[in-house]
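[job 0417] fold request received: 21.7 kDa class VI heat shock protein
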Amino acid sequence: MTSSSGSLKLEIHTDDKTPGKWSVPLGDDVFRRFLSGGGGSEKAVFGEGSLFSPFLFGKYFDPSDAFPLWEFEAEVLLASLRSLGQCRVDWSQTDQAYVLKSDIPVVGKNNVQVYVDINGRVMEISGQWNSNKKAATNSDWRSGRWWEHGYVRRLELPSDADAKYSEAFLSNNDDYSFLEIRIPKINSKNKF
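[job 0417] inference complete; emitting structure tokens
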């Protein structure tokens, strides 16, 4: 996982009123059938070590459910993936900020978006990887079987995270994009 110069600063959205977004849960058995029947794109997006893999944290966890990431040490949760060389994500915190870094496979449109629900204290990272498969008419792809069209990882924000000053950057190479998100702490003197 490497960062390169020439990063694109992503807009962090705060007003997303998509009805029914992430309302269809991705169950363990559904995910296993989906992944076993899929091709290389599905495995690149949802495979071992990916930020969007339901098995990223050692056991199954639906990525559309908010996870309290910063309550855990990356070294502990990712130890087995790191020992196998399959880890493409990392997170940490300093006195000033919370930081998330992740490789994101370049598949399909790869339109990574970051949303923050300031009141609900949740950050979500999502994007559409399969624009060829049509969602139901008059429906947003995130409102149905979202995993057939895109990906998501929802994260609970710590109580001292100042989400309104968050920054996200994306840099690209041939096979992966590198995403870095920085969320300052409320009492930090250094807002980005």
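[job 0417] notes: The mean pLDDT is 84. The chain has one domain: 8-184.
[job 0417] exit 0
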